[in-house]
Target: EAL domain-containing protein
Amino acid sequence: KSQELNISNTLRFDESLDREVKSIFWIKNDLISAISKDELILNYQPIYDVIRKRLIGAEALVRWKHKEKGIIPPLEFIPVAEETGLIHSIGKWVLFNACKQNKRWQDLGYEPIYISVNVSALQMEEPGFIQFVKQTLKESRLEPKYLQLEITETVSSKDYRVIEKTVKELTSLGISFAIDDFGTGYSSLEELHNLNINNIKMDKMFIDNLEHKGKEEIAKTIISLAEGLSVNLIAEGVETKEQLEFLVKNKCTIAQGYLFSRPVETYKIEELLKKTRNNHKDL
Ligand code: C2E
Ligand code: MG
Ligand code: MG
Ligand code: MG
Model:
């Protein structure tokens, strides 16, 4: 009896757990209808070639515009979507709309850029994924070379074969792949090498606090790793001029981050594209 009391007391007073359980509960409930209610939106974060000072790409980042709760960031609902299987329909919505948007910019006459879309490993394992990507390109009329898919490094050995096949087949169509958050996951370099992925996105943590002992060496090691493997390296989360100077000095020349721009709405990217067209020094 006293034990029961203890447990319920512990639970009652663990407010953070309580809050978490409640929030997962409403997220699950409301997320089911988020697509049909038109509540998902895409923001785009510019990706620059910092040497040529050109906008070369944009990463599509999903947000949920909840009727009562306001804008909900992806880290709060993507994990729930993965857990409930809703990631498949959300992922399809994101991919299709990102491709359509990129084609629309091209149709407006702007210099083509690539669109980079985050894809959960669960999506890549789904049997219909390859077919869906093909269908998306066909319907959006976007050329495959303007699509990049970002996958996180955490690929367990169980899924590895499926992922390998998917990457191979989609690469042969002309789509490119990037390893997202590189250096934070568990995948071995050997697996990475076997997947033949041509782009690595260096996680923000590697360029944070570069003044701390050893941090520059780690970042430099990742840069030379990319160079040695002949893959493109994109620096994520560049916030300061000092970080940018460090990157340029060490020959990492593709970057995105708040220093250039936060993820923005469609029309803002269009303004940047306009600038690129009128004036090639757009940084
Ligand atoms: P990610 O793919 O690594 O995206 C980069 C995240 O870093 C974005 O957060 C972006 O807003 C943020 N960021 C960019 N530059 C800076 C900077 O200079 N400083 C700081 N502090 N942050 C910066 P966001 O939009 O909240 O997305 C978080 C994560 O959610 C993404 O990380 C990605 O893993 C996931 N995600 C977003 N959209 C999708 C999607 O459509 N599908 C899937 N499966 N995952 C998504
Ligand atoms: Mg990403
Ligand atoms: Mg990332
Ligand atoms: Mg990340």
